[in-house]
Amino acid sequence: MTGGWVTRxxxxxxxxxxxxxxxxxxxxxxxxxxxxxxxxxPRGRLSAMSAVADGIAAVDETFEEMMSxxxxxxxCEVACPSLVPFGRAMEGARVELAAQRPxxxxxxxxxxxxxRGLGSRPAVALVTMLAAIGQRLRAPRWLPxxxxxxxxxxxxxxxRAPSTLSDTWEPLAARVGTAALLAGCVMDPWFAGVHTxxxxxxxxxxxxxxxxxxxxxxxxxxxxxxxxDEARALAATNRQAFAGYDLIVADSAGCGAHLxxxxxxxPGGEGWADRVRDITEVVAExxxxxxxxxxxxxxxxxxxxxxxxxxxxxxxxxxxxxIVHAAGYTPVEIDPLAMCCGAAGVYSVLRPETSAExxxxxxxxxxxxxxxxxxxxxxxxxxxxxxxxxPGYRVAHPVExxxxxxx
Length: 407
What we know:
Layout: H1 13-17, H2 30-35, H3 42-53, H4 61-68, H5 75-79, H6 86-100, H7 104-113, H8 121-137, H9 145-150, E1 168-169, E2 177-181, H10 187-190, H11 192-204, E3 207-210, H12 220-224, H13 228-241, E4 248-250, H14 253-259, H15 272-275, E5 276-278, H16 279-288, E6 301-304, H17 308-311, H18 318-326, E7 330-333, H19 347-350, H20 352-367, E8 373-375, H21 379-389, E9 394-396, H22 398-406
Parallel strand pairs: 2-3, 2-4, 4-5, 6-7, 6-8, 8-9
Antiparallel strand pairs: 1-3
């Protein structure tokens, strides 16, 4: 079998040539830190991609193992002096795997992560209802096998989850603009508390909040898994749904990071990325402007967990800390490198052992402090932390903590 790419999404020569193999990415790469193997490092993966592009190697089982072991945390991008767009290259390599190594399992996963799965509100509602019933049965393993481990940290779910879709809320202060909120796929039914807090705080900051009809799943999980057609279709749908808004707000770090990169999936003119903001950016800005109040310090510590797609992909570090501080808490740092917690979308299902190892390490960083509250701005990270921390700890979005404090 000869090498070479077959799709338009494959890593480009420019992306691959940017790597100078300096190794500055190695300390921040979780899989390299776990194994010490070059094939588990960013530069090792880029070398493998270059070998395929040059016809030296093939998209075979070895290549698939190297690419699928990656968490796509993008910590390497922060350390890279050559600004290699590793996340984009890895997404392209995953698309090539889907094209050159198709399988019934991969196709089924693509449908699950695409329009007929996460992109279908009836399908998500059905899964939510079944999961809620399973929680109420209090079975030791209310979900089978790997799914039980991956979703064990879910919040308690309502059997009939309310939806914010198509709703509108007027501002509670002098109006400064309109914020269009991404409802998402599982955020709406599984993390309704985050939406409720985001809407409440945005209204107090002077925003009219709208949840546009016609929107769908952001498509991040499909893109990360190589389901390019599904990712493009979901992105195009959201482009249309949010077309008339100057401010688009996401309260899930992974969703926000992917929305900001829609130009790669559904090109539609300049300025889209500038219109997308993470909720922590908007709230921290309103606090700094005096449009939102700050609370007296209580001295209660809150451990700050940095989701990869907030810190590494969006380069957002200070806003969550400013929000937690404004809520009266004391932010506590747990990891200067912000190593991945191991959730990584569907990684916890596909690679449960590695995911559990990283989750345990992240939990240990929390338990080494006096904090019993953890702030995390991404749903997958929240579930991972809750699973590994166990009873006695609360994991919440920074904006939830702030909304409670000012109410």
